[in-house]
Amino acid sequence: MRMEQMYQEVILDHYKHPHNRGLREPYGAEVHHVNPTCGDEVTLRVHLGDDGDVADVSYDGQGCSISQASISVLTDQVIGLPVTEALGVVDSFNQMIGSRGTVEGDEDIIGDGIAFAGVAKYPARVKCALLGWMAFKDAVLRIDGAADAVVPAAATPETDRARNGETS
Fold first, then answer.
1. pTM above 0.85?
2. pLDDT tens-digit profile of 71-117?
3. Are 43 and 31 in contact (CB under 8 A)?
4. Cα separation of 11 and 166, whole Å?
5. 36 close to 42: Cβ distance less than 8 angstroms
6. Where is the NIF system FeS cluster assembly NifU N-terminal domain positioned along the sequence (predicted)?
7. CATH class of the domain defined by 3-163
8. At 103, phi and psi to the nearest 5?
9. CA distance 131 to 121
10. E strands along the chain, which residues?
């Protein structure tokens, strides 16, 4: 069986049998993201444990097989990880997906996310694959206390000003 075919099966399996689908409580943040290009959407909840690990990620959404399977894969990859490590997984997936096929991705970091490597070659589908991953990142940044632990790694003058309540 070719690798591409195996990846397609992983995507189809996550689409038909999604993991962590169905909104659950408790949660520290809930976000709703929509891909205006195709109409894919997700409502995603993140709950962090007292230890700062990602205790739970749940979601509900609709859209193409790529967007919905990608969200299922995301939940498998980040639940149980410390927030900073989970965001590192998101960044690794984002680099692979945004590379137009030049970055292979590291299966040890992104797990089944590697199945979406071929999507990187189709710019129209990249937003589909990233929908849930960006929603997760957004939700984590909204949770009290998590932003302080995360923002400095990706800080820009704009985010520093916004975090300090300053305006441009």
1. no
2. 999 999 999 999 999 999 999 999 999 999 899 999 999 999 999 99
3. yes
4. 43
5. no
6. 6-128
7. alpha beta
8. -110, 120
9. 17
10. 29-34, 41-48, 54-62
